[in-house]
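quick one, 73 residues, struct below
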Amino acid sequence: LYAADLEKDTPYNTRRKLGLPPTAISNPGYDALYAAANPIATPYYYYLHDRNGTIRFAEDYAGHNANKRQFLY
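---
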């Protein structure tokens, strides 16, 4: 996902369109469904993978934006 993708006017861009996309956007496996039903306690709500594949976590949107500036741009 790139910053330019967030500007595209497609039915799947939920930052520009209200509600759900017209069709499914993924097909989760058992592990994903289990994790969603049994979440672990964590203060992190946001994450991204930097250019090296390291996962960078943030507790809030401001921290997520700081991670994007530091590790992606």
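The first helix runs from residue 30 to 37.
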